[in-house]
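Example (one chain per record):
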Amino acid sequence: MNILITGASSGIGKQLTCDYLAAGHTVYVCGRNAEKLDAFRSTLNLAEQERFRPLVFDVTVQAEVHQTLANLTDIDLAILNAGVCEYVDDVMNFDAALVERVFAANFFGVVYCCEALVKVLRAGSRIAIVDSMARLIPFTRAEAYGASKAAVHYFAGSLRSDLRPHGIAVTTISPGFVETPMTDANDFEMPMRISVTKASEAIQKGLQRGKPHIAFPRIFGLILAALHRLPYRWQIALSARMRNQ
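Predicted structure:
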């Protein structure tokens, strides 16, 4: 397969790139930093380097996205994984620019990529969009991050329905806590945190099966899904308890 992965220079995206290259696939490896992509490529064996196709662009810049993706007519699978996380530490003085930055990467980055990709993808291809289990509960300090992931999950669901008649499948991916540079910066407990290796395995297995939705780790997902079904006032109370810990 020819696979495109955004946010591929670190975390889940990097592990997916390594695993797909090792399995013999060609990967369009997308990131903002050419030096990081070059350093990544240098760690691979020669056969993998030949199938490593670096694409340097910023998903938040619509013109760059279109210029880069407009001619990629051979993509079988696009995994839109790029994202950022910023928390609201002082709600009485939070800056709307923080929310704009998070939505620019997590939501509009996906929108821009989809806008370009649907024009070139063939019937039988698939778009996989990474959101987060954080969208299920109104977590403290997560006004920007959680809202952006909820928005992209809804967007992907609607896109799935509208692309189905054209033969293009859409999969949503909802991770829990995964050991990445992004979660390394968190200053709170992260229950059931898993390795990027396990995350990559879960994503690959789900995509191979053609699943419309992939969530992992399974037990943590079931717990959050159960909490999501609680009365909303209970969810708010739970979030308040987390804030006060």
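Caption: The chain has ten helices and seven strands.
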